[in-house]
Amino acid sequence: MTKPRLLKKILSREVIMPLFRQYTALPCWRDVNIDELHNEVHENYIIVLALLILLERGRDIIQFRNEATSDATLPLRLTYTEACPDLRLGGQASTRLRCFRNPPWGFYMKEEFYRKQWQLNVPYMEMDKMGLSFIAKHTNFESDVILPWCRSKQIPPHMSEAPRSGYGGYSRVDPVYIHPDYHGFRAPLEKDLEDLYRNEIEHLKSFNGTVCPHLVTLLTTFTHKEKRNFLFPWATCSLESYWETEKPQPRSVDNIRWFSKQLVGLAEAVKTIHYPPHMEHKYGRHSDLKPDNILWYRTYGDDPNGILVVSDMGFTVAHHTLSRSNDHPATVARTPEYRPPELDTESNSTISRKSDIWPLGCIFLEMVIWFLGGKEEREGFKKSRKEEEPKYGAMTYTFFTLTQREIQSDNESGEQSKFHAEVKTSVQDCMNRVRRHENRSQFSDAIVSVIQESMIVVDPSGRDDMLTLHQKFSDINHKCTLEENYCIPSTHSDGL
């Protein structure tokens, strides 16, 4: 789909009408109402006119209009006959176009038209609209299509500082700046979609920022030059990088409330994956929650602190009600540091949505540690978790420790080895120290209690589900919003 907004700005009425007045001196233009022609051309033939002007054949717009060879018919196909190359409509290769015969076009001019049409017929990218909501759509682009990415010198300063490329999971990640006249992604990303989300959520069809603002928004997908592409809004950085570059303000009430709001938002995002209201009778699971898969957008509405968003839905799976997401541990994605213990202890069991609760609790605990004491205390916490894991014979930073035990088996051998998991002592000690931290508050105490009692729990059945957790964090956030003393750090003792 093409929406040549930029061309329409360049070829304004003030530019086109003087050209048309010059052309009226030609015999074929003498009876033309140039006002009516301008309106028609500006609406439906602006790319064609631009092509003709570049080829110094602007006067031929009359022939193209008479034959209805408009912007909608582009790109034209270049076919080769015994005589010379010819340009024809895509679906009508056997039909010759009169507009290229009277007056006649030569070999070079036809090839130039074919080549330049790709430069001007740039696709317009947007989301599909379903009722009042938006979903990503997929487009197969031809290899000659020029995508609306701006050159480096056109990229705004805040984008130019971003990493130029990288790899995430199994994919290459490249930042692109789309010319603002060639995309319509701004509308569905505006903050007023929060109201739209709450009123029309049952009509949404996919996980994205219109379902929950704390879920990454897939803008569109497309195939170009045999490569499959996903287009997302460019994030400032991951949560992992955010911890490294940003400085917390644990004694600022406004920042504490922003921090609380992000915890609620991330909980809402995972809740939406687990209980997708737009996918009836289905339940989802992320399966790879970690700081690298949580993104920070510096700019979000009028919030100067931005927003944290759950991303990398590549491992997300949705199941029908009857299955309730029970998968074998071997099929579940593993990020070693944040993996739940059941992946190592429940080899004959199944994995459910509760397997997302553990890593989310680990991430939330690190967020609290960072917020109270900065990156140094978070790094100290990570070092304290470093232990050799007997199952793999390697040093790990997991939040649980494994011990091997012998258990009675029903098989003929009588015994088989099994691993037993416990929350690491360093993790328990850290949660206790958070409650004595110089920047602790009733708010931070409440958050750590939820993490310790309902999230970082070895037995999956002892963890709360996301409906319950989202409500708990919402209640804490409500109290944080209403009571300033609830947020303010009180008496202090030692650090982490």
Automatic annotation (TrEMBL):
Residues 159-473 form the Protein kinase domain. SUPFAM superfamilies: Protein kinase-like (PK-like) (SSF56112). Residues 326-350 are annotated as: Disordered. It comes from the Eukaryota. GO terms for molecular function: ATP binding; protein serine/threonine kinase activity. PANTHER family: PROTEIN KINASE DOMAIN-CONTAINING PROTEIN, SERINE/THREONINE-PROTEIN KINASE SBK1. This is Protein kinase domain-containing protein. It comes from Xylaria bambusicola.
